[in-house]
Amino acid sequence: MVAALAVIWLGFHFLSDGAFLTSRNLWNLSVQSASIAIMATGMVLIIVSRNIDLSVGSLLGFIGYVMAVMQARWIPETFGLGFDQPYTWAITLAVGVVLGAAIGAVQGAVVAYGGVPAFIVTLGGFLVWRGLIFRMGEQGKTISPLDTNFQLLGGGPDGSLGATRSWILGVIGCIGAVLSVWLARRRRRRYDLAVRPLGVDVGIAVLSCVVIIAGIWLVAIGYESPITGDPSGVANPVVILILVTIVVTYMARRRRFGRYVYAIGGNPEAAELGGINTRRTVMMTFVLMGVLCAVAAAVQTARLNAAVTNLGIQNELDVISAAVIGGTSFSGGIGTISGAVLGAVVMQSLRSGMVLLRIDSPSQDIVVGIVLVTAVAIDAALRLGRRRTAGISLTVGLVLAALIIQTGRQ
Amino acid sequence: MTDTATRTPLVEMRDIRVSFGGLRAVNGVTISLFPGEVVALVGGNGAGKSTLMHALAGAHPADSGQIFVNGKAVTIGNPRDARTHGIEVIYQRLALADNIDASGNVFLGRELRTRTGALDDSAMASATRDVMKRLNPRFKNLNTAVRSLSGGQRQSVAIARAVHFNAKILIMDEPTAALGPAETEQVRELIEQLKSEGIGIFLISHDIHDVFDLADRISVMMQGQLVGTVDKHKVTKDEVLAMIIMGQKPAAAN
Ligand SMILES: Nc1ncnc2c1ncn2[C@@H]1O[C@H](COP(=O)(O)OP(=O)(O)OP(=O)(O)O)[C@@H](O)[C@H]1O
Ligand SMILES: [Mg+2]
User: Which CATH number covers residue B184?
Assistant: First the structure.
């Protein structure tokens, strides 16, 4: 996964004559990946429990639109509270999150308690939520501008941490990384269980810190805002993504909810016989997905400073692809949150790299499609121990992708 | 057991019926189990043994009939109900989640948690290691997904899961079906040990020798009905085989 990302980054850097691995490009890449990555963390749990959610793009569009109408029409006009109140963004976001959770609960309940396949339920949702945008009383007009504070959620010149706070974040991150390695070690020690060699644990801790510091220094601080000329620092969408990743990873790995999701994916019958409330668990994965759609919708609308009717179109495909490229298996039970986030970065790297190379958007789609199938083919082959098949898949995929990129350059 | 008429049974299932559509898988079966006793449940394929035990385990509740635990009528509607009455099961098709490690499986549905409510993986791994010492001392792969274990090791995990929680009533549905000779011997020893601790065991088995070695009483089922329950010491293997195959009850049996 990391190796694939390195190859893609170096490949584009080389092909674009050094335009890819620049602070500016990587900073933009981080912001562009954020909203898909946020949703992909939730999609992992849905796919792990042997379901699918095709509605995320439409759901994002609908919630984004509702939040825009909320802050630009209802709060200032209908309730007569005026524009740019300090609390507007918080109310709007809270309404979006609750709406996302509620819609997720409805879809999840129909899947879990109604016994309707998730594919069908969310295919219905895909149509319904997009359609409802046009029934909001605004006839699908673009809603703009948005609340000033709300816009900060999307990044942009003021929507970043700046140098000082970025470094503080970095230090917290390093402390967290070291602490988590140390605590895990101590816990296992206490129960007299085998621990990794001290050198390995120290290596992991040091490496985490180096990656965090390097990322902040080279990308977040290295990129100077084109408007103010100051170092930008970590963009707010990326901060949100980091928080989401930590929270969802914690739920997946350290809480009963996550354990049950993986158990259901591994063997639904065993989960049931183990006394797990499998239906409730499945429903909760959809609730979480709805909440994450709302967060991603906030990021996307804030970044655009507008809500448009086609917001989030095709996002379901990017989100599912990110999860799958990140190693989530459709046969259930397998997938990691961090893998999905990396998968989202891989997807976005491909797209932004091809933009740098001036490859037209239909050709970009072809390449992303090829990469998706290749990644899963390699994964499947490796899982069965078929190295040759994996090698062939890799070669065929690379050749096809290179062909499309070369012939698509303008 | 000679005093079966006077003591209170650990479990009594009375007139249990279970149907799948039109198929009467269990049709009016009455069966009992006393503390420290092993009752073997035998019968041909599809006789209804697993289905009867599923009713006791809450995996597939009975359509009608009564269940008594220590003489008290209980309702068992799901696996959690069964567990609250101290009933643990080792299923015929091992109910393990392949993608989760041994201790995760042992504690599935009953995870140990820290004060913050997070999973306490280390405590679970340590407890699993301790049960395993008793079941399968060579078992070391506590932290690998169960998928990569051998059939016998998986069986150990399934058994560990049933014994760890201080079962009073243990249901073993063909527990040695996947095991080699050494592991089978371990399970036999375990059964003897649990028995001496006063645990009651329903043992489903197709191996007539196992049945005669381990069981106190033998209940024979055929086509969803109970042919009869006999004391091991009062029958011969041939008589039991006749019960299984032809549904003939021997004259000498109670
Ligand atoms: N879930 C189910 N749905 C439909 N029919 C079932 C189901 N489970 C069992 N049956 C049927 O009920 C009957 C009894 O099955 P059961 O599994 O109890 O037999 P068994 O005595 O355990 O056999 P075996 O020795 O092969 O394990 C069989 O005819 C079987 O086909
Ligand atoms: Mg059976």
Answer: 3.40.50.300
User: Is there a contact between A69 and A143 (Cβ–Cβ < 8 Å)?
Assistant: yes
Nearest beta carbon to residue A275 from set B80, B93, B122: B80
ipTM at complex level: 0.89
Q: What is the model's pTM?
A: 0.92
- So where are chain A's domains? 160-234
Question: Does residue B108 belong to any structural domain of this protein?
Answer: no
Q: Which amino acid is at A129?
A: W
pLDDT tens for chain B, 254 residues long, are 445 556 889 999 999 999 999 899 999 999 999 999 999 999 999 999 999 999 999 999 999 999 999 999 999 999 999 999 999 999 877 789 999 999 999 999 999 999 999 999 999 999 999 988 877 777 887 888 998 888 878 888 988 998 899 889 999 998 887 778 887 888 888 899 889 989 999 999 998 988 999 999 999 999 999 999 999 999 999 999 999 998 888 765 55
Q: For B109, which of A188, A193, A275 is closest by C-beta distance?
A: A275
- Which ligand has the minimum distance to the alpha carbon of residue B221? 1
**Distance separating alpha carbons of residues A271 and A293, to the nearest angstrom:** 28
Q: Assess if residue B103 is contained within a domain.
A: no
Nearest-CA residue for ligand 1 atom 31 is B46
Buried b (16+ CB within 10 A) or exposed e, B165-189: eebbbbbbbbbbbbbeeebbebbee
- B201 CA to middle of ligand 2, Å? 16
The runs of H, that is alpha helices, within A50-117 are 56-69, 88-112
| Mutation to test the A interface, candidates B84, B98, B132, B165, most A Cβ within 10 Å | B98
